[in-house]
Amino acid sequence: MSERSFFAYMNRMKYISRWGLMRNTLSENITEHSLQVAMLAHALAVIRNVYFENDGRVVINTDRIAAMAMFHDCSEILTGDLPTPIKYHNPEISKAYKDLERIAVEKLIDMLPIEMKGEYEKLLWPEDKDYLELIKAADKLAAYLKCVEETKIGNPEFKKALEENKRQLAEFNLPEVKLFLEEFEPQYWLSLDELE
Fold it and tell me: Which domains does the chain have, with CATH numbers?
């Protein structure tokens, strides 16, 4: 692999399908998912900065979190998307997959010219816990909204996943997520005509 292959590999995110164990009415790849997570992470950051700034919480750079979220699943270019029931089946599998993700990210970073590596390391393997928490919440929110979309059109395959993702969203205990679910999530259940 050359130190000029990074962007060609990023382009391949569109070939990695999500929800591999589920019968989807509309398939989703990690490019589409990553864009949605970036938009949702940006929205959660804006909500935090606008509505909860005075709660002593860290102000989030909305551009930075969107860029970080865009790359949050890029390791899957090399690892594939391991379905959630397998990924979190037991601690050994979870740890092994985290180690595999770390190796994949390092391999991707090595595909960049040395002058660019530092900038992308901050995006591909961020360490700021406030940013990571919102990105994880946005990732879970994107999964939940995919379940809404599938359930809304009558796909029973996603009924249990809808309930489980909603429960997991509540466990984040983030006011940004709560506000998003109260104010914006109901519109996801509407048809295009109802939105107008």
Answer: 6-195 (1.10.3210.10)
Alpha helices in the chain (DSSP H): 6-10, 30-51, 62-70, 76-79, 84-87, 91-109, 114-124, 129-152, 159-172, 175-183, 192-195
Place of tokens 């790359």: 71
Q: Nearest CA to 2 among 108, 120, 118?
A: 108
DSSP character for 187? Answer: G
Please tell me what DSSP assigns to residue 26.
S
pLDDT for 20: 79
Query: In b/e form, how buried is each residue of 23-32, taking b as 16+ CB within 10 angstroms?
Result: ebeeebbbbb
- What pLDDT digit, counting tens, does each position of 90-144 carry? 788 878 878 888 999 999 999 999 999 999 999 998 889 999 999 999 999 999 9
d(CA 4, CA 9): 10
